[in-house]
Amino acid sequence: MNFDGKSPLRMICPHCGAWGAHPTIRTDPSLYFSDNISDDPGSTLYKEYFERFGGRDLSCRVRTKQCVACKTNFDTAETSKHYIVDLISSAYSGDRYEKWYYKEFKEHEELKAEVAKLKKTISSIRKAMRPAKEKKSVAKDTSKAS
């Protein structure tokens, strides 16, 4: 029962799959960003994703809810509706993704060209070193014959 007058958000429990108005048992007063919600503390993957597709880093408030069916606690993140709308429209339009893709593709092609150039250089160095080795082995063979 919820005594503060607000009805809890109806959602699916991530543990048992029960649909219901799972009450909030704790609201964290801190403002979270994507690097705080990642399971990997040093990861910047979430931040890069949100900045790429949402145009800015995610900011949210974390709430702990308790399932009405299995009584397991789970965390939820609450963020601005405007941010979600921007994120969805950005992902839908693909503009940011296309810009990112072409930038990454260009870098990939440049790296491929650099690798090819390095392989060619290494190959020419190996070719330049071969005659010196062959001359030494030929000299050894002639000394054995005498």
Would you kindly provide a written description of the structure presented here, covering whatever features stand out?
By secondary structure, this protein is of the alpha+beta class. It has 2 domains: 10-93, no CATH class; 95-146. 53% of the residues lie in helices and 18% in strands. The protein contains 4 helices and 6 strands; from the N terminus they run ββββααββαα. It has helices spanning 34-37, 45-54, 81-93, 95-145, and strands at 10-12, 19-21, 24-27, 32-33, 59-66, 73-78. Strands 3, 4, 5 and 6 form a 4-stranded antiparallel β-sheet that branches. Strands 1-2 form a two-stranded antiparallel sheet. The chain is elongated.
Quick overview:
The protein has helices at residues 34-37, 45-54, 81-93, 95-145, and strands spanning 10-12, 19-21, 24-27, 32-33, 59-66, 73-78. It is of the alpha+beta class and 146 residues long.
Low-confidence stretches: none
The helix content, as a percent range, equals: 40-55%
What portion of the residues fall into strands of 2 or more residues?
15-25%
Tally of discrete structural domains? 2
What class do helices, strands and sheet pairing give? Answer: alpha+beta
The secondary-structure element order is EEEEHHEEHH
What's the gyration radius in Å? 30 Å
Overall strand count: 6
